[in-house]
Structure formats: C-alpha cells, structure tokens
Design brief:
This protein is an alpha/beta fold. It has a single domain, classed as TIM Barrel, CATH 3.20.20. The chain is built from 12 helices and 11 strands. Strands 1, 2, 3, 4, 5, 6, 7, 8, 9, 10 and 11 form an 11-stranded mixed β-sheet that branches. The protein is globular.
C-alpha cells in the first residue's frame, strides 16, 4: 500500500511507492501488507535499488560499462597461456566508478544479471576474436563469471553457442566461472549447461569452492576443469592451520580427479609461497597483479571502450571483498 495524492504526477511515478512496498512485503515473508514509509530502511534500500536499475540500463546503452582484466598466474613452471579474469565495472554519468556492491546487488534483485552477463560475454568473445595473443605472443584465455540468473535461463546457453558460431572463436579461449552455490541451486540446468559447452571446448571453473557443507560431494556432479578455492581459506593461510589444511585437502583431491586449482586473494609473497608449497596450480590476487583496463592489456590494441570519461583507480574496481 502507498498513499495517493492529487498532485502525484504521472501514473508511473504514483505506482513506484506501491511497487516498493510490494517488494518489501516479499522480503519480509510474503502473505502480508506493507505500507510505504519513506523513512523505512528497507524502503530506502528499494528506492536506491530502483535508481540503480535505471543507472545500469543507462550504462549498458550509453557505454559506461568497463571491463578490467586481472591476471591468473601459473605457479609451477612456464605459463603458455595468458589467463585473465574479466571484471565488469560501471561508471556514473560523471565518469566516477560505482562500487560493485551497489550496482551488482540491485542487478541481482531486479533480474538484470543476465543482461550484464550477455554484455560481458559479447565483449569477451569479440575481443578474443580480434586479439588472439598478448604482447608476449601467448594465446589469451578469459575467465568470465556467470550468474545464477543466466545459468537458470532458457536461452542463455544458446546465446553463448551463437556468439561462438558467429565469431568462429576457439571455445577453449573461454573459462566460464560458476559459484558452487549457483551450481547446486540450479543443479540440472547447470549440469546441462556445463556438459554442452564443454563438448564444444569451453572450460569451466567452480568458484568459491569449499564454502558448502558438501563441497567435495558436488565434484561428482559437475565436470569442471578448475576449482577456485574460496578466499576465506587463502587470506589467512599463513596463520590459520585449519585454512592451510583445507587448501591442502582441496588441492590433493583436485589433483587425484585431474582438476586444476586456483587460489584467490594472494595478497603477499608469504601466501604465494604457501599455496605453491601446498600444490595449488594457479594464483590470483593483488600481489600477483592488479586489474587493468581491458583496452590496456594489449599493445597496439584496436579495443576502444566508450567509457572515456575518467581514469579509474584499480584499487576501486577489484573484486570485493579484497
């Protein structure tokens, strides 16, 4: 419910408070009535979300989304592929970066994640089609995070197949990352999604691995190429024996199953030495390399993103929490 005044303006603006109250009722258990109160914290968050929804759509249409690439480094020998994770960030109309926690949450709650995922996949595929090698002559592979909304969609799988067919890109250049929670929450669709794209040659990584109560059991359900060990086990691995033991166990089981492992949040030389000692295959984090704007990754690149409004401080765009 929301109050209706005679000077409320256009019908669409009059309905917004009622829509927000409806969303608040859903948040608080459904089967109930909520009255719009401008001072209610849930209402305030919903208003902020709706504003962000408009900003996200405007950013997609107006070229204010920016891709950054963070290196993922092989820890045991020569690395014959330039491997980077793509991070999507948004600039406001003044060219300033918007914290990911602000726009990602709104995109998730208002079913915009598939639009963001489509934008990232499209840009990644087109970039890889034009830029086959990095400045050192190594083939490039991009890791792309996919949301539960995309995995659960009826047409997102066909969208990726169409993008690969349209460009003729070698599918092995893509490593698609799905969190453990998303994979389990969309079990059947995730299994089909992974199986069909792996048959084409795409790689898959199970992200945030180790947070679920039955993490190791899930490995039997999903054919993946990599496990990304959850950062909560990596960031304190030098001080916490439990974290060290968890990482060691994950690395050993993955090795037996022929799956590579990636340690996130490698923020120091000590952490790097420890995960290498425990047999982790790949490392990612600020100590290894900060995210850089995708267009700056290549020499003499033809990539030109439209978001030329401001230089962005890499410390503001890394995956949160850092």
């Amino acid at each position: 419910m929301a109050p209706l005044s005679q000077d409320g303006g256009a019908a669409s603006s009059v309905l917004v408070p009622a829509q927000i109250a409806c969303q608040a009722a859903k948040d608080r258990g459904r089967g109930r009535v909520e009255v719009y109160e401008s001072a209610d914290q849930s209402i305030i968050r919903r208003m902020d979300d709706l504003n962000q929804v408009g900003s996200i759509r405007s950013a997609i249409e107006g070229g204010r989304l920016v891709l950054f690439a963070q290196p993922i480094t092989y820890l045991s020998g020569n690395q014959n592929v330039a491997y980077h994770e793509l991070l999507v960030r948004m600039l406001n109309t003044a060219g300033e970066p918007v914290p990911p926690s602000e726009f990602m949450g709104a995109a998730e709650r208002y079913q915009l994640m598939q639009e963001l995922d489509r934008w990232v996949v499209n840009k990644a595929v087109e970039t890889l089609t034009d830029e086959l090698q990095d400045s050192r002559g190594r083939p490039i592979r991009f890791a792309i995070n996919l949301s539960g909304q995309s995995i659960g969609s009826e047409n997102f799988l066909d969208f990726i197949k169409d993008e690969l067919s349209r460009t003729g890109l070698d599918p092995s250049r893509l490593c698609l990352e799905i969190t453990e929670t998303v994979a389990v929450g969309n079990l059947k669709k995730a299994q089909t999604f992974i199986a069909e794209l792996r048959d084409l040659g795409c790689q898959f990584s199970l992200d945030d691995f180790g947070t679920g109560l039955s993490s190791f059991a899930y490995l039997k359900m999903f054919e993946v190429d990599k496990l990304k060990i959850d950062g909560s086990f990596v960031r304190d691995i030098c001080e916490n024996e439990v974290s060290r033991s968890m990482v060691a166990a994950i690395a050993e089981i993955a090795r037996v199953m022929g799956i590579e492992t990636v340690a996130e949040y490698v923020q120091s030389e000590a952490i790097l030495d420890t995960v290498r000692e425990l047999g982790v295959d790949w490392g990612q984090g600020f100590h290894i390399g900060e995210p850089i704007r995708l267009r700056d990754l290549f020499e003499n690149s033809t990539i030109v993103d439209k978001a030329d409004l401001a230089d962005v401080d890499p410390s503001l765009i890394d995956k949160l929490p850092a």
